[in-house]
Amino acid sequence: MKDKTISAACAWHPKPTASTIFEKKFTTGELPIEPNHYRLIWGRFCPWATPIAILMDYTGLNKVISKGAIYSLRHAGVDDDWFFGKTDSDQDPILKTTRLSQNYRKADPKFDQRPSVPALVDIKTGKVVNNSSDQIMNELSTAWKSYFTVDVPDIFPDDQSEAILALNRMIVNDVTSIPGKIMAVDSQAAYEKLAKQFFDRLDWFEKRLGNNRFLLGDHITQPDIRLFVSLVRFDVVFYFKNKLNQKRLDEYPNLWRYARECYQITAFKQDTDFESIKAHFYQVSDEPVTSLDRVIPDGPDLSRWEY
Fold it and tell me: Where is the signal peptide (predicted)?
């Protein structure tokens, strides 16, 4: 059961594939930029999908692109699909499907992989058109700027695009992806290498934030959204469950100040669901809990995140 639940909890992305069915873009003209045409399916627990939800709420894109969340626990006996509710019959209110795989198969009838979030869905056809976290983030940050709320800072300014993409690579490669990789190690050396990569990068960000309010100055840009989401999960789950325990987040004065400041922003706070994060990574599925590894811990003290 343990190996099965670990696999289920870590599987956000589908198997590598040469298909571009789920990588359609706005910037190439493949997808029309049209309000009320798309729905983002995300997971409140997911470090890859949550940044997109925050981005949409922060910029005001949530007024022209709707979003819906999958149920945070796997259904008993089904570790290869996501459901839209607690029961097998619960539907997404807009898409009218009960499982995310149904929307994948609308796009590709031969789809036989584990459906993943994020998934951007064409509401008119019910088809998943893109499931790449990185692509969706960048596409919404650039192609949809004309729909941003007037007073929101530009989260992807043209003159900082190279710096933004470089920071994104650091966050994805050295922070966000490490917890999943570390769960698959088969040696002490492999664990230590990944842990060092993770904490070396946190040290780097700690130093950078000693001179900056946010990663690129005095206002939020796209990399801040990505880093914040990973820091939350590090504090709440990965320090404990993934043995990334060299230092706690609050032992980094600059990173902790930064993470808490981000959390006070409405879009960041409302899309940070501590309970769903803990439930997903510990309990994993709605099967009865019969072992300590699936017990949801009481801590850490989440009031620390408030000012």
Answer: none
Architecture of domain 158-277: Up-down Bundle (1.20)
The pLDDT tens digits for 261-292 are 999 999 999 999 999 999 999 999 999 999 99
Q: What is the pLDDT of residues 176-206, one digit of tens each?
A: 999 999 999 999 999 999 999 999 999 999 9
Amino acid at residue number 3: D
DSSP for residue 295: S
Radius of gyration of the chain (CA): 19
Give how far Cα 3 sits from Cα of 10, 276, 293, 294, 295, Å.
11, 21, 11, 12, 16
DSSP sequence for 81-108? --BSSSSTT---TTT--SBHHHHHHHH-
Return the CATH superfamily for domain 2-147: Glutaredoxin (3.40.30.10)
Range 210-230 burial, b when 16+ CB lie within 10 A, else e: eeeebbbeeebbbbbbbbbbb
